[in-house]
Write a structure and sequence with these properties.
The chain is of the alpha/beta class and 259 residues long. It has one domain: NAD(P)-binding Rossmann-like Domain (Rossmann fold, 3-Layer(aba) Sandwich), CATH 3.40.50. The protein contains nine helices and nine strands. The termini are far apart.
């Protein structure tokens, strides 16, 4: 039985990935911070034939995450771990009137998007290396290719994840561990529903999940999509910093996180 771990499975891409993989012969280990949505995705996946183990888990809680992941791996041998949990926020006005990026938002975004990924990856990486087999996917973003003044912490956190993931892919390849980095563009999720502007090439989460799963099956180093947004993000990343920042400053601001 193939065992797949997905963090942040209660919403957005994580929810869609859980549904995509749920079938007979698959064991899913799902985490999230919302009890009702966790029970919902567990029920959906069980109805599709999967064996499901769910846990209310905050990826920032290293002292809890690490022993729990080791226990899950000892019991079931995790074949694929998708470090998906993440949050976003920018410098625009949110629903509760919050604006700009204060220290609270900055630290929360880095804590979830960077430390949360490390807390998921680190306990499993060496165990997979010792077995000589395993696969770990890290959720980054197309925002990782540029210094977005409209969402500084988000862009920087996702850049950290992308560079780290692509670095360890090379470092662990000889040990039989597959590492993949996922860089989506705009996907219709609760995270993007708050954006008060038109998002180019907005994609349904179920379609995004299918693209990700197929990319992981092919062991693609970087799963970046949709291609027009990927091409634009890559182009911006190649420009001199002053040119890129000048261009990006005209883009609409992503709302700040609510307090």
């Amino acid at each position: 039985m193939k065992t797949i771990l997905i963090t942040g499975a209660t919403s957005g891409i994580g929810y869609a990935l859980a549904k995509y993989y749920a079938k007979d012969g698959v064991r899913l280990i799902l985490t999230g911070r919302n009890a009702d949505r966790l029970q919902d995705i567990i029920s959906v996946c069980r109805d599709q034939g999967a064996e499901v183990h769910g846990a209310m888990m905050d990826v920032r809680a290293r002292d809890i995450m690490s022993p729990w992941l080791v226990d899950m791996d000892r019991r079931f041998q995790i074949n694929l771990a998708i470090a998906n949990a993440g949050v976003s926020g920018g410098t625009g006005i949110s629903a509760d009137g919050t604006d700009d990026e204060d220290e609270r938002q900055l630290r929360e975004i880095f804590d979830v998007n960077v430390n949360g990924v490390l807390n998921t990856v680190a306990p499993l990486l060496n165990r997979m290396r010792e077995r000589g087999i395993g696969q770990i996917a890290l959720m980054s973003s197309l925002a990782s290719f540029s210094a977005w003044p409209t969402a500084p912490a988000y862009a920087a956190s996702k850049a950290t994840v992308r560079i780290y993931g692509e670095s360890i892919r090379g470092a662990y390849k000889k040990d039989g561990v597959k590492i993949n980095v996922i860089c989506p563009g705009f996907i219709k999720t609760p995270m993007t529903d708050v954006n008060p502007y038109k998002m180019p090439f907005l994609m349904d989460a179920d379609k995004a999940a299918a693209i990700i799963a197929k990319g992981l099956e092919k062991d693609k180093a970087r799963i970046a999509f949709p291609w027009p947004t990927y091409a634009f993000a890559g182009f911006i990343g190649l420009l001199p910093a002053s040119w890129a920042l000048g261009l990006l400053s005209f883009f609409p601001k992503k709302p700040a996180r609510t307090k």
